Amino acid sequence: MRYQHIKASILEQFKAPNGNKVVPFILGAPGGGKSACAREIVSELGIEPGKVIEFNASLRDPVDILGLPSAKGDHSDWLASKEFYSIRQGQGRAALILEELSDGSVAMQNALCRVIYDRHAGQLSLTEQLFIIATGNRTEDKSGANRITSKLANRTRRFDFTENLDDLCEYALNAGWPVELIQFLRFRPGLISDFDPNRFCNPTPRSWERTSYIPDSLPEQLYFDNVAGEVGEGAAAEYTGFRKIFRALPNIDALLLDPKGADVPDDPAVRFAITGALARKATKDNFDRITTYTARLPKEFDVMTVKDSLKLCKDVQNTRSFSEWATRNAEVLM
Hints:
- The chain is 46% helix and 13% strand.
- It is an alpha/beta fold and 334 residues long.
- The strands form three sheets. It has a five-stranded parallel β-sheet with strand order 2-5-8-1-9, with helices on one face.
- Strand 6 (120-121) and strand 7 form a beta hairpin.
């Protein structure tokens, strides 16, 4: 399932009566955005930050759940950890994100079974208004994941996470990634996530995000070396080649001076580059010229430009040219 579908499903489940009794377990390849999805769900639940606990199963021991033994006269008791104590019974709405659950040892998985099903951490009763979400990698990705015990699996609801172009591009636009990187991924969607456990570097949403941080001021060869260090040489060669095309585009301002007569490229890579540049330039004052030009492109590029323009500059929806475009393209706005 894609990011938005998983998110919508889990939020709707959590709103239902006894919905928080279900524990979603989001499984997928490394670097796809599983943790971001879990955090976004918790954020939309409106739980105060102090009541959101992230517990990494691969870095902890069962004693972190059971607590430390504390002598009290003729018997010992278990002293709960601060994080679980903060979401104890009576503390109201809270959330527990179990990160890298599949990397946990069998002993850790056993300790978490009672947390998930009975809402107890050792002797400590947890709040009845606790929402739990787990994330994890798959064993086939050789990332350190272990087999999930059958009793733990039976206490969760599995969601198989699949990377999606639209979800990633929406995130990238909001995060301010370079336009050439976003348009490259649209041009080569197969490189959004091309994970091979036998390679050191892999193209994944996580590594593409780090690619977006590489300083644009680096000389060409150093820029390539940095990209290759994130996504591997093959993907880096394709992206930096696309970046050169983007840098060689005609001046966008000059193009908009004559949107009816300016050249329309045939090369798909150039079309992706030029429509991305147009969306970045969109304002309510030039949107009529942008739609005049994109109407001369194949439909998918016209739609892509307008949708991106809306995300980047909401004022364009108040223009006459957008109203006319929306009337012609009502089916894509449904």
